[in-house]
Known about the structure:
The protein is mostly beta strands. The protein has one helix and five strands, in the order αβββββ.
Amino acid sequence: MHHCLLEIIVCPVCHGKLNYNKDNFELTCNFDHLAYPIRNGIPVLLKNEARQLPLDDRQ
């Protein structure tokens, strides 16, 4: 994930900062506890495509 892209995209639910999880290849929102997938290098920022983060993955 390109660093410049991470500076401009936000969570579609709360408009907060997203974090790149390189292990799972997804963008996470710590406030909403959602993880958005990255498919073919493109972030899929749709709430219905996001997965709920398990309690142990929340920070």
